[in-house]
């Protein structure tokens, strides 16, 4: 498995693969990889001949006061995990390679509607940063397929929409959330949790499951259920950012007629912000 840092080298290698008639899969990440990421790589390897994993902590998607500087950078460890998962090529550019003219001067991709609300409301500019860098990665790698985790449910919806709207010829594949045994969604940011916080963290998924059970039983009083879920999180020592029951496609507030409903949650444990979601069919 090779690692390249420059776009020029990436393009030269990929040209060679394309000339051999190989299909290319892309897995965009910010590194500090865990089994959630390697499951995406395995999925990409099933769907394409060559798998490119990008590792780039994208400054454009971090807000002021967020963890851009402290976000864990663990390239050597990541390379070992990727090789084991069947990855072909790692693309690990630095910020100057991706944004040679700096962030202020960068053309941006703005995705309306699905990027509004939820994480979009709590992290202004976040999805502009994600949409822009993902569009750039699509142009850099020109993959046939790209795999993203359902753990970042709103992000996946944003990427599906930008791909459709900008007619980018790539198939977007969603991959299920990989969890710890106690239900906590695997995430690089779990590493920030103290031992005490880690013991409380599974409450996020438990609250999702308890609320989903109520929905499956036919409850339509979504506001009451959201309020009760926020209270459960608070009682466990979390600080809920949002707990929203939405239509799975539009991410707008769910209605009683919706057959596919998604519960979206973000909550702080100390300074760590955890997100998760669960979808139900009715
Ligand atoms: N537990 C998981 N299961 C499946 N996919 C995941 C999981 N965690 C992350 N991913 C996916 O991996 C890709 C890269 O995500 P990222 O590098 O931000 O990882 P992360 O662990 O979610 O980090 P963070 O804690 O910063 O959100 C995204 O498509 C994301 O949805
Ligand atoms: C898709 C992504 C790699 C873009 O920076 C990031 O938002 C992530 O890791 O989910
Ligand atoms: N996993 C989404 C990337 C972020 O939180 O910035």
TrEMBL record:
It catalyses: (R)-pantoate + beta-alanine + ATP = (R)-pantothenate + AMP + diphosphate + H(+). The keyword Nucleotide-binding applies. Beta-alanine binds at residue 61. The keyword Transferase does not apply. The active site is at residue 37. Its EC number is 6.3.2.1. It is an enzyme of class 6 (ligase). CDD domains: PanC. Pathway: Cofactor biosynthesis; (R)-pantothenate biosynthesis; (R)-pantothenate from (R)-pantoate and beta-alanine: step 1/1. (R)-pantoate binds at residues 61, 155. It is found in: Cytoplasm. One of its GO terms (molecular function) is pantoate-beta-alanine ligase activity. Its main location: cytoplasm. Keywords: ATP-binding, Cytoplasm, Ligase, Nucleotide-binding, Pantothenate biosynthesis. InterPro entries: Pantoate_ligase (IPR003721), Pantoate_ligase_C (IPR042176), Rossmann-like_a/b/a_fold (IPR014729). ATP binds at residues 30-37, 149-152, 178, 186-189. SUPFAM superfamilies: Nucleotidylyl transferase. Gene3D superfamilies: HUPs, Pantoate-beta-alanine ligase, C-terminal domain. Homodimer. PANTHER family: CYTIDYLATE KINASE/PANTOATE-BETA-ALANINE LIGASE, PANTOATE--BETA-ALANINE LIGASE. Catalyzes the condensation of pantoate with beta-alanine in an ATP-dependent reaction via a pantoyl-adenylate intermediate. NCBIfam families: panC. The reaction proceeds by a bi uni uni bi ping pong mechanism. Belongs to the pantothenate synthetase family. This is Pantothenate synthetase. It comes from Marinobacter daepoensis.
